[in-house]
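Recall that a protein's primary structure is simply its ordered list of amino acids. Everything else, from secondary elements to tertiary packing, is in principle encoded there. The following example makes that idea concrete.
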Amino acid sequence: MNGKYLMKKNNLILLRDMIVIGIAVISLSIFITVNFTGLYHFFVVRDHLGRLVGLSNHELMINYRHLISYLQCGWIHHWQTSLPSSSKGLTHFANVKQLIEFNNVVLIIFGILAEIVIRNRVREHQMWQLILPVKMGLTLLGTFVFILVIAFDRIFILFHEALFRNRDWIFNPQTDPIIKAFPESFFEACFLLVFLIWILAGLGLIWYGKHELKKAR
């Protein structure tokens, strides 16, 4: 009876720890992707996006960096842009700002909790217990990435419909020309970068768990 109780307790602790680490990794991957302006710069240079909105690539990057600052910083209440924007477009960016600021709060909370969880497991030599669930998670992730690649259009729409209650995310290029400077391939690359960070984090946990087992022999 005690053995079954301990096994159930350990499984619940493992599930709790996996949830904490998983949320922390998801939140961190979003934070990194949003702030990695180099990814957008690659598309700006490769596709000459500035000329699509009547700006030089340098001017477009300035507008983009102002947008990221607006989305990330709670004390910045207006997006400084040289491009025209409709009220619906600005409302959408305000909604995105709320989601990103929420993610930042989640990152702080679960980042601290994840650090505590990992430190405790490292101290007690229990990181190896994460190997199997992480492998299962990476297998599911690989399946989802495959679906994303072949059906990105549909998933992108479902993503917006799930996160936003209104239809302000559907931009009119005439009133919000900035949308012309955000090709679909850029958003797909953002999703893939998020998943890449998940994969690297998972592989890191697996490597450390195996390293721990090897040292214990």
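The mean pLDDT is 93. Residues 71 and 93 are 8 Å apart (CA to CA).
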